[in-house]
Amino acid sequence: MGAIGPKNRTSRARRNKRQANYKLTAPNLAKCSKCGALILPHHVCPKCGTYNKRQVVEVED
Question: Is the whole model's pTM more than 0.90, yes or no?
Answer without folding.
Answer: no
